[in-house]
């Protein structure tokens, strides 16, 4: 009974934190769904406390081994999800930094009054772009 109450409290806490952060616009829907997904195992185990034991009996594996495999799989999935979010944000930041550099380059040549038709090659990398030279004309 105590274990069920603890699991329900943890699941409810994660649910409330996700909804509150979403309402205050501190958290995007994508990340709120991640928190909700994080709380699901706690609700499932609160509803069916012997789920791991039943799974161990069906698979013919010891209880501790099934518990270890389940927790490890869950943490690996969460780790992969968070790393994919970080990776996509890193790509977006890199792309934005390159765009700012290009704009500063254009703005700098306009401020110095250069009206040359010489092309200055720049390297662009980012999502949806292949690595290669992109030529910007100075002046217009």
Quickly describe the structure.
With 140 residues, the protein is an alpha+beta fold. Helix content is 71%, strand content 12%.
Specify the biggest β-sheet. 2 strands, antiparallel
* Structural class based on helices, strands and sheet pairing: alpha+beta
Distance separating the two termini: 75 Å
Rg from alpha-carbon coordinates:
26 Å
Taken together, the total number of domains comes to 2
Shape: elongated
Oligomer: single chain
Low-confidence stretches: 130-140
Q: How many runs of DSSP E, i.e. beta strands? A: 2
Which percent range describes the beta-strand content? 5-15%
- Spatial ordering of strands, largest sheet: 1-2
Helix content: over 70%
Series of H and E elements: HHHHEE
Q: Write down the overall mean pLDDT.
A: 79
- Total helices: the number is 4
List the helices and strands and how they pair.
Elements (H helix, E strand, L loop, with lengths): L1 H22 L5 H19 L3 H9 L3 H49 L7 E8 L2 E9 L3
Antiparallel strand pairs: 1-2
Helix pairs in contact: 1-2, 3-4
């Amino acid at each position: 009974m105590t274990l069920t109450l603890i699991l329900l409290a943890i699941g409810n806490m994660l649910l409330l934190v996700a909804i509150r952060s979403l309402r205050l616009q501190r958290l995007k829907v994508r990340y709120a769904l991640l928190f909700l997904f994080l709380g699901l195992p706690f609700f499932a185990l609160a509803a069916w406390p012997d789920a791991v034991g039943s799974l161990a009996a069906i698979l013919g594996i010891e209880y501790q081994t099934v518990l270890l495999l389940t927790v490890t799989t869950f943490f690996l999935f969460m780790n992969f999800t968070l790393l994919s979010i970080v990776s996509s944000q890193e790509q977006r930041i890199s792309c934005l930094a390159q765009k700012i550099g290009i704009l500063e380059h254009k703005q700098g040549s306009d401020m110095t009054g250069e009206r040359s038709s010489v092309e200055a090659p720049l390297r662009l990398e980012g999502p949806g772009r292949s690595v290669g030279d992109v030529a910007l004309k100075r002046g217009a």
